[in-house]
């Protein structure tokens, strides 16, 4: 099984998990389903809607700038997750595979990736404001906080890059 391979790296496993999350739950089909079939006033409905946060789309009534910003946000979440997983030392410095430092490093990388992706792409949107960028970064960090544990679990037990 690919996910239990003893040679998987923390960066690769976390990036693959982030890519799957963004591709599946950020898809226009899932976003539409979540909006139509979930109740935002329940914990389950709120979480299912939260999963759709880095939504990407092909067409919309929005301006071209906003569509490009939304698509770029989804791409940046994955790319920045890979970057932060590589840069955060927790998974590389753990003495043994499967320690909690790997879990928290993966989780933290997704929080940072969500916040920075939202902050950067808000500046591309039509009529950007500093307050809007701060709010978007808070939304991205919140998304990473509640969904990032999945990335942390994916990196748990990964190879650290040296023996």
Task: Describe the model.
It is built from seven helices and no strands. It has helices at 10-25, 28-37, 43-50, 64-87, 90-93, 100-122, 130-155. Helix 6 (100-122) packs antiparallel against helix 7 (130-155). The longest helix is centred in the C-terminal third of the chain and has 26 residues, at 130-155. The relative contact order is 0.18. The model has no long low-confidence stretch (mean pLDDT 85).
Describe the protein's topology:
Blueprint: H1 10-25, H2 28-37, H3 43-50, H4 64-87, H5 90-93, H6 100-122, H7 130-155
**Mean residue pLDDT:** 85
Reported for the largest beta sheet, the result is: none
Multimeric state: single chain
Total E-strand runs: 0
Shape: globular
Order of helices and strands: HHHHHHH
- Count of alpha/pi helices: 7
Radius of gyration: 16 Å
Euclidean distance between termini CA atoms: 22 Å
Q: What is the SS-derived class?
A: mainly alpha
Strand residue percentage: under 5%
Q: Which stretches are low in confidence, meaning pLDDT under 50 for 5 or more residues running?
A: none
Helix content: 55-70%
């Amino acid at each position: 099984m690919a996910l239990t391979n003893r040679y998987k790296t923390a960066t690769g496993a976390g990036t693959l998990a982030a890519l799957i999350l963004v591709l599946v739950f950020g898809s226009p089909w899932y976003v539409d389903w979540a909006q139509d079939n979930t109740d935002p006033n329940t914990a389950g409905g709120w979480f299912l809607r939260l999963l759709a946060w880095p939504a990407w789309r092909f067409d919309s009534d929005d301006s071209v700038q906003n569509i490009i910003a939304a698509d770029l946000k989804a791409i940046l979440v994955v790319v920045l997750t890979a970057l932060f997983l590589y840069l955060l030392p927790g998974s590389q410095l753990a003495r043994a595979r499967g320690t909690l430092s790997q879990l928290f490093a993966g989780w933290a990388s997704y929080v940072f990736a969500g916040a920075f992706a939202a902050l950067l792409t808000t500046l591309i949107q039509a009529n950007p404001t500093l307050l809007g960028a701060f709010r978007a970064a808070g939304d991205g960090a919140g998304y990473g906080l509640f969904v990032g544990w999945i990335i942390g679990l994916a990196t748990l037990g990964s190879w650290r890059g040296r023996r």
